[in-house]
């Protein structure tokens, strides 16, 4: 279990995270949502150990992560950062194998090879194994980094995967595949925390959603509890409708209208009021059957 106990964090005297507490059990996939600058990546950096909280504790399986041996911690926690620039011509399989380097002495060569082969296969990279990372597209590179952190924890389901915007640069097929992989890992017993911007992907795959606003945790619950029009307005400033897809019983958020600042776009818009871009309202029976998505 991962338990976050009242953590706060300041940078240059500016509070970025304030008194955040929550707990994740094995098998849960929690999506972290919030507007730009809400503090999602900062929270992930604290959970990953990249930064230390000013107050509060992060407990993993009953022990403060501060007290863990680094190699042991590498077998229990993996972190996919939002940006993973690669400037040297490593091959795809070399990058994925880097997921195993942190605890090399704790793992056999056979296990390392198995983790490499299986994670590359699940991320659709087998055919790209010998390609240079520098020759890959942004979405392909992101899949390699996903495989790298899956490889890190591949043989230890008592662990936590921290995924900060893992679907960056991915096309729709790989966005769904990535989150389906994360959900499948959760089903095996892993704890998953994933930062997402696309609320409907969060609704579809996460078992729980936490919304941050201005560095605080505002809501924490099931997608149905958290993704309401009122919360969408408070967290993101958008007017939206919430539907329940009748076949999957998943929530779907559809923006209704987007406010634009007229003056900054077109002086021909002669109005003293903010214009509103009306979006077509989608009827429930037009919605995609979300259950048909498989790994
Ligand atoms: N190194 C830094 N120096 C100054 N301010 C920072 C730094 N890192 C983060 N911040 C500020 O902290 C706040 C939270 O940033 P964070 O990256 O956690 O937000 P986020 O919710 O992940 O946003 P996004 O959705 O845009 O990725 C922002 O206002 C950001 O400008």
From TrEMBL:
InterPro entries in alphabetical order: AAA+_ATPase (IPR003593), ABC_transporter-like_ATP-bd (IPR003439), P-loop_NTPase (IPR027417)
Keyword terms of this UniProt record: ATP-binding, Nucleotide-binding, Translocase, Transport
GO molecular function: ATP binding; ATP hydrolysis activity
Highest taxon of source: Bacteria
Residues of the ABC transporter domain: 2-239
Function noted in UniProt: Part of the ABC transporter complex HmuTUV involved in hemin import. Responsible for energy coupling to the transport system.
NCBIfam families: PRK13548.1
Protein name: Heme ABC transporter ATP-binding protein
């Amino acid at each position: 279990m991962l338990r976050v106990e009242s953590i706060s964090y300041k940078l240059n005297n500016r509070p970025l995270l304030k008194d955040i507490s929550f707990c994740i059990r094995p098998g849960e996939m929690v999506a972290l949502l919030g507007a730009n600058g809400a503090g999602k990546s900062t929270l992930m950096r604290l959970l990953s150990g990249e930064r230390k909280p000013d107050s509060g504790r992060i407990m993993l399986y009953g022990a403060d992560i501060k007290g863990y041996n680094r190699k042991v911690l590498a077998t229990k926690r993996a972190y996919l950062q939002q940006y993973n620039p690669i400037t040297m011509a490593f091959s795809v399989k070399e990058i994925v194998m880097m997921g195993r380097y942190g605890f090399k002495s704790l793992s056999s060569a056979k296990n390392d090879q198995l983790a490499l082969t299986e994670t590359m296969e699940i991320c659709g990279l087998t055919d790209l194994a010998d390609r240079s990372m520098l020759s890959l597209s942004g979405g392909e590179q992101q899949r390699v980094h996903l495989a790298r952190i899956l490889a890190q924890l591949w043989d230890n389901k008592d662990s936590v995967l921290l995924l900060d915007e893992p679907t960056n640069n991915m096309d729709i097929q790989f966005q769904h595949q990535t989150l389906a992989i994360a959900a499948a890992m959760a089903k095996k017993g892993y704890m998953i925390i994933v930062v997402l911007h696309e609320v409907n992907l969060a609704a579809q795959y996460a078992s729980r959603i936490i919304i941050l606003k201005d560095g605080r945790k505002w809501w924490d619950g099931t997608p149905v509890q958290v993704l309401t029009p009122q919360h969408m307005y408070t967290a993101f400033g958008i007017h939206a409708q919430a539907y329940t897809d009748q076949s999957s019983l998943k929530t779907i958020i559809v923006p209704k209208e987007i406010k634009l600042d007229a003056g900054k776009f077109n002086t021909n818009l002669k109005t003293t009021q903010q214009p509103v871009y009306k979006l077509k309202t989608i009827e429930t029976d037009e919605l995609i059957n979300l259950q048909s998505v498989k790994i």
